[in-house]
Design brief:
4-stranded antiparallel sheet, Alpha-Beta Plaits, homotetramer, alpha/beta, TIM Barrel
């Protein structure tokens, strides 16, 4: 931790800060320059984390040296984390695709969609049973019935299931049916939910919040990891900016940045990021080119009649084309699909 | 709902959309201009809400006419909502101040702070028992013990209590101790939590999410109201922008905008918005000048040793000064403090 | 400057950076911690400004200690700058109001407006002769004829003139007619324009760019000041965020932050920030409450027929009311209007 | 144009708006629904552009039907624009790369860099002679001398030159030396500069402003095109968001969106967007995958000693690798490099 004093800081103010830091068990290196006095606090920075040094008189700014995340960082573990879900590896050479409808609607629609995304080349089936909707008047999902449909579709296709957890009270139920628990963007800082999924033995797909920095995204992963569960897939799905041409702004730079910072696999969800089906294929190609370990794609057999997110859903035939396109890209970056 | 077609839209594409709208029970007004064909869908717009018209071939854009919130809107109820908490009115002539520490730490500190904010003129005591912290390694709050301390402080000072709910499983417990349930910014779209607080008979203080538009903020209030609980206080606490000089950017324009759109009372939290105690008083004055019904202010008897948010907490003496300053402003806008 | 090395940095990489800094004439303080090696570069930080230390192998991050602005900073000059324009002081006890139409349209309209804003209590008349318009097909201003109208209105009312400079080629012409040169938000980083206005002896009203941080805003002021002209008025006029309920988001926190950082006077333009006349009065009140030295308000005698920004223009009667309201606020903060 | 009235709008208010629209020569279609009265204004929407209908009493909102840009839109011209610069085609099958140093520093460095980027496969040489720098104390470019060096490098390598125009007074000078005029992000709404480059017969590379929507970006292109020059290359270079891990957030979704909206070629500048050389290659690959017509890459023979942007410059060897990587991607999307 570096503490920079105001030009006007008095000797008293400076020694007060020095004493404060020493009392917490850290050593102090004091440097008086012509323009500013600076303190380097040497030792376990986390001891200072909850001390409001910036509130002390005379202090201009406080600059942490270390990153706040540990278990999820590359410094902690250099090799990439590979997650094995029923024999399907995530974070290894193969680019993995999770596909399926936004929400589970009927058994027939789901089975049809599951069969077709499997044919197209998807490795996982997604489908929401519990749906976070902006409006209380929109379709909220089928609940447990939806989970049962997903289990049925899994039995038929062999595709492992990804579905969202919205409420800590549903975790046991969800764990009976799904293979990967999804934490949605709006719950990225629902710390109780993160703690709960940190305690189960299921991989977690954690979506980046609309207004979350990469640092905060990794801190949320750290919440999960700190409870013991390190099978975490990070998923960028667009951040909120001033641009309205797309629903959110897909931050593809986050992929190589995350790859430098963490050992966890990184996925991209171009469907929610853009909100428009016509943009999904080009951005999926870009995602694979930039180094993503996988994609999450909304597919619906009948988007016109979808109860949720029809605008951004691909029809199965378009999805099959997308899979071919990303296959070509994957080959040029030394991966497979 | 207005549907605008692409210049290239075919007759077939247009009639497909017309049929789709009619099949949902709405009337269609078709207008063929030189540049564009336009449809006005006449009838209950909510019937179209989950129909992805933008996904239909030939459609360029879809423009809703009505606002998505109902119960919380001024159109629904013109007179301002006044909430009575143990005889203290919120949303009436008097500007109300909720003050207290970020988190409950010890009984002594809390009682000291409660006594002093009461002397300063606060109407409510705040204090977190369950704390949403960015890092899993930070102090997470005292839990039920913290609630008991709050109850004790209430007994001593008579100040009603405001405290945050993070988990639907805690709602019964919280309701035993607190007078206003706070929903934090990070949970503004935790729809399960909103549904739960919509079913109890306690006023709710709903904080705006960091990346929430005013429309989404009102939709979250609508979630609560749609369950029957309309005693909702809206609280703006800064939105996330590119500016880093303050923790977030306090959106004071939201106050007059919300006053036009909704009948609910509107509060401002300048402590979390700015993250710096030295900015709290000027922004509190601005908040009262712009028409806020109340303020939420962090006060700590010993900010240097606070376990949470010390940088932004006022000492009791500064808080007393703040109360005097906003008293003057309130008088010029026809209110009292 | 503090340089933090990656955990993986080698001895060679570290000594390369040390040598680089020494070769630029700075002293080096090296500190090897358990987690990270850190260098403090001691001496004139500006010598390092154009050295891309972050590009050197082994470097994790570089943290500057000093602020990049000098002449405009409080450290450089503690007392507030007071600008005298024809005897009217800006930045002193009196809150100053610049009012008038967005663009100069006709002599009659301008004279009418000027007379009325003077009656209302404005200290300066604004009016655009050169207009930066988003569309090439919109009204672009009257040019020199507009300046002549402004001079005429000044003769009649005695109000000094504020008008915008868009092109370095117009500076001499503009200086003949106006008393304060405005640099618009879109030109805040038009460095050639800044350099030019830095060389004349006219006060400059510099508007904050839509996407400019406070630091960049001050750097643009520094551009002007570095050429010799320190009569600079800073004007916050809304920043671009995701919120669409207002045209931009007025950042009122910028006022107390700027007051801490710089000695220059700070104005607020609520008309452009909100884009809606109904929000102008409450935000003007908030601006005075938060400590602004002045306001810039769009007033038009006939907003319905304005060629520019009619939506956000107050009628003269509404403006007179606004002046009364801010008079009350000013009194409670120890100022006059 | 659709005009939606408030629920509370009176008959008088509605007829006032009707009269206003009719007086401008448009026809009016009035529709009274249960919830809202709506007007469709039929005819030339541009006649209404400068009429502040939202300011009229009773009006809730105004929704334009048509896009504000014309000449640059796909509706106006369906086939892609191909620009021929000395026989090198931009916007055709081949992905084009502009490479070179941020600023021209010495003849030797420039020649060395030019030779190497040519060997690597670049089609154009970039280099700033006039530099927009955030600080007045940073290197501002060599001016005309820099242009002469560029001309020299062109003579030696045959690479056409791209360089930035900052000031309308320099346009003649610049046109003598360069083949493509660059308008920088900070000048995207410097309308005088846009007008000037619209009047010359040189292709223009227009960079997107940090806070510019895609609509505003196209309006700036329209400024140029409206003067007669339609040889415009659009260049996305990162937008300003809350994320600080990269300098700006590269908006790759803008590529397919722009491809739908306009016939102009679209380039990507990953160097400025990210500010970090290690991110340039993966994002270049993503840019080609998503459909960009070209790239603009900063290359410096000695980044450690660069006077500008060393952190984001690739060394020539890294650039050669990048070219190979994008070659593979280009092949899978049916293009060449």
């Amino acid at each position: 931790m570096i503490i920079v004093f105001k030009k006007s800081a008095t000797e008293e103010e400076i020694s007060h800060v020095v004493d404060r830091i020493k009392s917490l068990g850290l050593a102090v290196h004091l440097s008086k320059g012509e323009e500013r006095t600076i303190i380097g606090a040497i030792g376990d920075e986390s001891l200072l984390a909850s001390t409001p040094l910036e509130a002390l008189p005379g202090v201009e700014k406080v600059m942490p040296i270390l990153k706040p995340y540990k278990v999820v960082s590359r410094d902690f573990k250099a090799e990439p984390t590979v997650i094995d879900v029923m024999g399907t590896k995530i974070g290894a050479k193969e680019v993995r695709v999770i596909a399926g409808p936004c929400s589970v609607e009927t058994m027939d629609l789901l089975k049809d969609c599951a069969t077709k995304v499997k044919e197209g080349g998807a490795s996982f089936l997604r489908g929401g049973a519990f749906k976070p909707r902006t409006s209380p008047y929109s379709f909220q999902g089928l609940g447990e019935e939806g989970l049962k449909f997903l289990a049925e579709a899994k039995k038929e296709t062999g595709l492992p299931i990804v579905s969202e957890l919205m409420d800590p009270r549903d975790i046991e139920l969800l764990c009976e049916y799904v293979d990967i628990i999804q934490i949605g963007a709006r719950n990225m800082q629902n710390f109780r939910l993160l703690t709960e999924v940190g305690r189960v033995k299921k991989p977690v797909l954690l979506k980046r919040g609309l207004a979350a920095t990469i640092k905060e995204f990794l801190m949320s992963a750290e919440y999960i990891a700190s409870q013991g569960n390190t099978d975490i897939i990070l998923c960028e799905r667009g951040i909120r900016t001033f641009e309205t041409a797309t629903r959110n702004t897909l931050d593809l730079s986050a992929v190589p940045v995350l790859k430098q910072e963490t050992h966890l696999p990184v996925f991209i969800d171009p469907s929610h990021a853009t909100g428009k089906w016509s943009l999904v294929t080009p951005l999926s190609m870009a995602a694979v080119a930039v180094g993503a370990d996988g994609l999450m794609i909304e597919v619906h057999s009948d988007p016109e009649n979808a109860l949720c997110d029809g605008e951004q859903s691909l029809k199965p035939a378009k999805f099959a084309e997308l899979m071919k396109m990303i296959g070509g890209i994957a080959a040029t970056v030394g991966r497979t699909v």
